[in-house]
Write a structure and sequence with these properties.
By secondary structure, the protein is α/β, with parallel strands linked by helices. About 40% of the residues lie in helices and about 20% in strands. The protein binds nicotinamide-adenine-dinucleotide.
């Protein structure tokens, strides 16, 4: 019997599902059981061509519509997503293994927020009037054209919307390639957008591995590439886009610091560390995986952390009581277990977790290491799993220098009750998305993105508009033209 997660077809192009079984089959594995629940096929060159040519053509008329008309469609899509939140959350859980407790509040709802927010902004995208004496200059905010979105596997619905909503609001079209690990949810986003009235060809989804992504990035018809993925992939995609002088947004990985001072509220700091390490089983790019704790509260912090981490409920992710799900794939589980072994070998002190959970599926126990030092592998490399490293520190100056000593710069957090210190420290941290007495909030109203190797550009907020549009300036002369001859 066909599993309910099996999509109607692999791709969504020109307003309809399209299948081409000549492509490489991509099995969709449910991470909680290891069973195959669906199959899609990687895009063949013919499918890539169909998606790009249709998106290129459809964009022209879309850009000519008023922003208000475009926005109305996006806002209608947001409403449909909210109405279907439960069904979409169940699918997100099948796609990723993340517990329904999370997906019910963080995925389709976050996607709907983006559609609603950018739908609301679409009608207010205007240029400037610049007086020049008798003459003037006016500017026009124009669409870039055809945008490619490429997703990671941790937030398939959210990523499809975070890229699609601002792109469409600005008058662009999109070809979106989800991660081959989680191909299901973006198809639903395309389906809903079209149900909401999006003209055919403007939001297309095609499946495939890195080669399909690369074929999209290098196509001369593509004007912009927005990638969510790892730093090594980001470097390749950025270079390929540069060869065609394309616009880019790069949302990449991190190894973010979360700094907890002696005077912090311990319960809140522990809550922040849990949200910043164990949500989505640690598969979150902005996670604060280097938790620097000032020596005065270290043992108290660790004791409460171990107690509260022990309350995580591992189990069937479709059961709303489950609060902690599996790794997305067996491969990701093995990578995480490898890092845990490295942590043990290099002398970190295991506080809790530290192994694969004794149950079906790809579960790794939420793991905390203390006495971690800056040079240990688990403190330097992005693990993308539920492994928290707790490091000690003495002074503010010391911890700022150590926090910044990384190639990454996605996020950073500070817990303290001294507000002047909080702002002073955050002001010196090299990170794009920061938190004071909180961690991992990502509202659509706030810019999101990294500095250093963690990325280029910003998603969400009015900032995202700048990355999906360009400004044309027009000089208007009212008098005669003076020329040398
Ligand atoms: P990945 O880099 O392996 O893959 C990302 C996407 O790029 C996939 O769709 C993949 O098929 C595609 N791809 C791979 N090679 C390509 C190429 N040469 N050309 C074009 N596309 C190519 O990442 P992943 O394992 O899916 O996701 C985990 C990573 O994503 C982590 O590093 C994580 O930190 C990062 N991430 C970042 C954010 C953010 O917003 N900053 C959010 C989520 C995940």
């Amino acid at each position: 019997m066909t599993h309910p997660a099996q999509p109607k077809a692999s791709h969504f192009i020109n307003g309809a599902y399209v299948e081409d079984t000549a492509g490489t089959p991509i099995p969709v594995i449910y991470a909680a059981t290891g069973e195959q629940i669906a199959t899609v096929y990687a895009a063949t060159p013919a499918i890539v061509e169909q998606a790009l040519s249709t998106a290129k053509e459809a964009q022209k008329a879309w850009a000519k519509m008023t922003g208000t008309e475009r926005g109305r469609i996006l806002r209608r899509a947001a409403d449909i997503m909210r109405e279907r939140n439960h069904e979409l959350s169940v699918l997100e859980t099948y796609d990723t293994g993340k517990p329904l407790q999370e997906t019910l509040v963080a995925d389709a709802s976050s996607g709907a927020d983006a559609l609603e927010y950018f739908g609301g902004l679409a009608g207010s995208l205007t240029g400037e009037h610049i007086p020049m004496g008798k003459d003037w200059v006016y500017t026009v905010r124009e669409a870039l054209g055809l945008c490619v979105g490429i997703g990671a596997w941790n937030y398939p619905t959210q990523i499809a919307c975070w890229k699609g909503a601002p792109a469409l609001a600005c008058g662009n079209s999109m070809v979106f390639k989800p991660s081959e690990t989680t191909p299901l949810c973006a198809l639903k986003v395309a389906e809903i957008l079209h149900e909401a009235g999006l003209p055919a060809g403007l939001y297309n989804v095609i499946q495939g591995m890195g080669e399909v992504g690369a074929a999209l990035v290098t196509d001369p018809r593509v004007d912009k590439v927005s990638l969510t993925g790892s730093v090594p992939t980001g470097k390749k995609v950025y270079a390929a886009a540069a060869a065609g002088m394309k616009h880019v947004t790069m949302e990449l990985g991190g190894k973010s610091p979360l700094i907890i001072f002696d005077d912090a509220d311990v319960e809140n700091a522990v809550g922040g560390a849990i949200n910043g390490n164990f949500y989505s089983s640690g598969q979150v790019c902005s996670n604060g995986t280097r938790v620097f704790v000032q020596k005065g509260i270290k043992e108290k912090f660790l004791a409460r952390l171990a107690e509260r981490t022990g309350a995580a409920v591992l189990g069937d992710p479709q059961d709303e009581a489950t609060s902690f799900g599996p790794m997305v794939t067996q491969n990701q589980m093995n990578i995480v277990l490898g890092y845990i072994e490295k942590g043990k070998e290099e002398g970190a002190r295991l506080i809790c977790g530290g192994k694969r959970a004794d149950m079906p599926g790809f579960f790794v126990e939420p793991t905390v290491f203390a006495d971690v030092t800056d040079d240990m592998t688990i403190a330097r490399e992005e693990i993308f799993g539920p492994v928290m490293s707790v490091l000690d520190f003495d002074t503010e100056e010391e911890v700022i220098a150590r926090a910044n000593d990384t190639e990454f710069g996605l996020s950073a957090g500070v817990f303290t009750n001294d507000f002047s210190r909080a702002h002073r420290v955050i002001g010196q941290l090299e990170a794009g998305s920061c938190f004071i007495n909180s961690y991992n909030d990502a509202p659509v109203e706030a810019p999101f993105g990294g500095v250093k190797a963690s990325g280029v550009g910003r998603e969400n907020s009015k900032e995202a508009i700048k990355h999906f549009s360009q400004v044309k300036s027009v000089y208007v002369r009212m008098g005669d033209v003076e020329a040398a001859f």
